Amino acid sequence: MDNLSIFLCFVIGLISLVLISFKKRYTYWKDRGIPYIEPTIPFGNLPQRQVHIKDILEPFYNQRKPGVSFMGAYFFRTPVVIATDLDFVQNVLVKDFSNFHERGMYVNEEDDPLSGHMFSLDGEKWKSLRAKLSPTFTSGKMKFMFPTVVDVADRFNFTLSEILETESELEVRDLLARFTTDVIGTCAFGIECNSLKTPNSEFRNYGAKIFDEPLHGSLVQLFLMLYPNVARKLHFRFFRKEVGDFFMGLVRETIDCREKNNVRRNDFMDLLIKLKNGESLDEHSQKLGRLTFQEIVAQAFVFFIAGFETSSTTMLFALYELALNPDIQEKARQEIQTIFGKYEGKLTYEAVKDMVYVDQIITETLRKYPPVVNLQRQAVRDYRVPGTKTIIEKGTAVFIPGFSIHRDPKIFPNPDVFDPDRFTPEQIKARHPMAFLGFGEGPRNCVGLRFGRMQSRIGLITLLNNYRFKPCSKTSIPMVFDEKKPILSPKFGMYLKIEKL
Prior knowledge:
This protein is α+β, with helices and mostly antiparallel strands. The chain has a single domain, classed as CATH 1.10.630.10. Strand 1 and strand 2 form a beta hairpin. The N and C termini lie far apart (86 Å). It is found in: Endoplasmic reticulum membrane; Microsome membrane. Its cofactor is heme. It is a peripheral membrane protein.
């Protein structure tokens, strides 16, 4: 037998072994009596073309079986759980959180320091960081930051008013992102970004790179999560090096300036500096230890990306729906003007709290357009599903299809209809507590939800009090999402007609 024949036999044998390995692995859920969708080699149940990440889980939720907690799936050759029952979702996120406190995200602090942030970390490191950073987001801290956000909103109003002198149909996505960028830059870093006046500011450009030019597509991101040890050996980065270098330099410069000049601003960066220096924040903080410089940068980074993108996206889709539903827009405007009258025309912390219908609009927007479309957890030990003999093995990833739950007609009748009255206290009480997952749920819910709601409310109130929004010829109806972006984003921009009141 010549060398070519030997080589061909080796290749054929190797391929056969790989195929046998996949086929054997793909009996995992069948052997356990769990409903599943037939996988294909080598992607399993992952699509072989670019789709939005929300569309990966949707078929499983749509084929859910009554009385069954979850569907089995295969991402490449790895078995994963797709939650389809709200009681099971509640067990994972809340009741049995101690079994599912990890997200199983890819973290590689050596090659990619920005990946070591609180959203991705697990175990004691996550627990410690959560305890350290939670004091930033108390209602007292929100009240302190409130005037700063209002100041940025006033500048936003002035900028938009100037633009409308020459044009009336605008692409509002970038404009809203510039507003939230300036808010986060000021509240977190104490930096006047001025991206409202200077659209190409460095701060805004690097923020845009993270979401508009992601380093990896959704399939590669799943690979990083499912095979983290392999990814680390290959020195994969989650974020672009220039983004990491920018934030490293920015935070170092901010800390040096503040410490050199003894500047205290009572903001997020202040808290991080105190933690770096081992200073006491409250009676518990001395037990929590110091933060390293790299840890500070990672936390400042995640505060920035979570704060500017999710809030701007929420306002974006809220304005879209209000443009398509002028009766709802007018009802919100009437509430705003009535409350303004009660508070002598001033936008105060108490005034915003009184604008209940505006808050319902934001919540309904988050229902229909949740920025984070899927939640994920990982079993930290073998877990017996309550009321069954089914065991979810340690290390198994659990995916919760938030977008599909929010669009389920059995939970929210006529789910494509935008209806803020779904979120009156009576309606909320009548639904399952896991029916709405706009900020996650349980101990790993969004730590900055108060801040996110606050800046979205202030931005929306300012806009509705001064402008009327209508669809125009460039408005996408129905909405088409950009499949390349992990956060819901309009594929063709967001064009609206804006009239100054």
